[in-house]
Protein 1
Amino acid sequence: MKNLTITIIFLISIKVLCQDFNEKTRYLFGTFHTQNTTINGISVGAFPEFNEKKRFVRTNGIRLEIPGLGLVGLLANGSLIRKEETDEIINGLNISGGTMGNVSFNGITLALLVQSGTENNGIAIAGLWNGIDKSNGIQIAVLLNEATYSNGIQIALSNSTEYMTGIQIGLLNKSKKTKGIQLGLWNINEKRKLPIINWN
């Protein structure tokens, strides 16, 4: 009886704590253009949500954003790296033309052109540009990877981070505070500038 009481209290506590963020739950299919919703399955939409209203959406499964913002993010030249509070979490696979917003990616995120988010825990791949505030895992892009905090690997023609723990591989690699190795044509960290290989 005691164990049952503890279990009930625990479940009620979880419900109360999550109430602000999980007012609605959708199964199999839903849109991420909602507020305070958890979607278990496939979530779809055309563009991210940029508004002043408090919102929280969680996708557990696959998120499809077609077309996404695409070239708009590339024209922003990195200014859309997010440092605000996360209002959308993706646990699983994200596929888009270009996802940008206060999004936390947990798993794999694939963008045709560009993407920007608050956090990457897994693999972030973009056709041209990847901008993540905190990247824990792997960032891969053709042109440019940017991060405020990078814990893992960055691979692109150009890689840039404020705080790096791990490896950067590209033609140009930059880091302001480094614990790791830079491999590329020109490598810059807080101690030195070197071709081919740099470290700290």
Protein 2
Amino acid sequence: MYIPSKYKNEDLSEVTEFIRSNSFGILINQLNGKPWATHTPLELDKDKDGNDILVGHIAKANPQWKAFEANSDVLCIFNGPHTYVSSSWYKEEEVPTWNYIAVHIYGSLTVMTESEVLTWLHGLVDHYEQGEKTPVSLSEMSPATLRQVKGVVGFRIKIDQIQAAYKLSQGREEDHARIIHELQNKNEAGSRHVSDIMKKRGSKGS
């Protein structure tokens, strides 16, 4: 991913927290010589050696998995909040722009066994059911229902490289107060989210 140096975020703790909060990503590889992408949860986890990995699954009916063995290289994209920024908010004349956060992860994928997938899905469901009024658990479901697990392909991704772009009006710090104010008053959730992030990062002097 092309990232101008002033937008590059190399704070691993901040980036990993972003991935955890925006774990519905895009898995990309090559299938029959063409790019193939699937939108799916990609959860940050640890391997047996304590290294960060991504864990996910796709439907077995999705032909994307058939290319995993021949070429394990994959790209995972995580999108965060984004918003249009009007240059009418600047003190000096300039063209408008777009603020956003995006993370690209390059890695190598290995397919999990059916039993490994089932174990992982138990934990995944328990995690996301926390806080529900009547949480469901795979451990309480019938064998007939759990047979659906046979219809998915689970995988782990060894992380080789992380690229994080945080484009948040760097270089226009004199206009940040106005930009934050204008974004906060927008109706779009993305605009307000970007505003909150800019305000938080500014308070930390970043």
Protein 3
Amino acid sequence: MGAQYKQVLFDKMPVVGILRNVSLNVIEAILPYYKKAGFTTLEITMNSENACEIIRKLSSDNPDINIGAGTVCTMTDLKKAIAAGASFIVTPVLDKEVVNQCTKENIPIFPGAYTPLEIYNASNLGVTAVKIFPATQLGPGYVKDVLAPLPNLKLLPTGGVSIDNIASFFKVGAVGVGMGSSLFDKVLIANNDYDGLFQHFKKIAKEVINAKQ
């Protein structure tokens, strides 16, 4: 089993960094800069090659950050992710069986939902927060509109979140965001430009911190 999920870490920097099909070697090269910039939560998608091995190694070696599993679609995925040491679970859709198992075992879960009804139903299952996915076409305005009649919902928009709009999501009430390629710049990583990547991380972290003040 890996390290236990720490809510305080997520609250400090409420961004879930999403990595899909990135090798363990590359992730280990990136992580020191990711942490140094203030990021605390990392999701490895289960449809990545060697996902379980990566989660197992990262969670064992990095107790100072939250390492979780994403794209968990079935109970089989969930069991593999938990066995690998994932400290939290993220799903692209709302699967009640997966959610109920997580809440039963006190494993933080961020299930994906899109419509107000889906989001509301997911929230009522006792989840950590609801991942609004895909948020690409919706934007901050959608989060604001959903929270207007349902202010107690905890929403984590994912998809389409970038340095240009991340502050707007927090200002309308999102408790966090999920970021993939907009956070882990593929060009910088491919060029082994870790200083450039660190500067990129710091700029995004600054936007989050300023938006939360």
Protein 4
Amino acid sequence: MKKQTSIPASPSAEDYRDSAEDETIDLFDRKDPFALFGDWLDMASKHEPNDPNAMTLASVDENKMPDARMVLLKGFDERGFVFYTNLNSAKARQLHANAKAALVFHWKSIRRQIRIRGTVEPVSAAEADEYFASRARDSKIGAHASKQSEPLESRFALEKRIAAKVAEFGVGKINRPEHWSGFRLKPVQMEFWRDRPFRLHDRLQFTRKSDKSKWNNMRLYP
């Protein structure tokens, strides 16, 4: 069997050296997972080459088959983590059928990862309207034109739909389409992972029984 050459060798201690500033407060002294998340996101924003708010969203379909894709975080606070999508998309259909999901943030530039699990609920119409209004005009037109997750016969067919919507809206206001909105993941578990030499990583897990409960935390073996 031919030896594979594309898989990197195991890293050395120098390879593991952190490429970003460390926290002034020790990771395991942190008590508020949302504040810690905000600190890490700010750090990633200074070092990631693009999309520090990119996250993997995992859900399951009607056959309980796992599914995952990258989406963009568009807001967070103590209520949870918000993202937006076409409500006819595969992800939206899965979340409506089973309102539980998981998120993963991985910032290679700062060698950190956050895993989040919880329940999912739709954002309010007012929230969706406010965010949609902030989008670029071409993005708004795309939201109206795209039949997300449905079969597409050609690129030309998509461009034709976009051109039709451009003509329809002209220079007028573009309101949010009914088939486009957002979801909020309300976490019951958040795990913070920080790279350390020779796979002896730091792991801090926060858990609570519901999104109304108090957080508990504990260290985990790497």
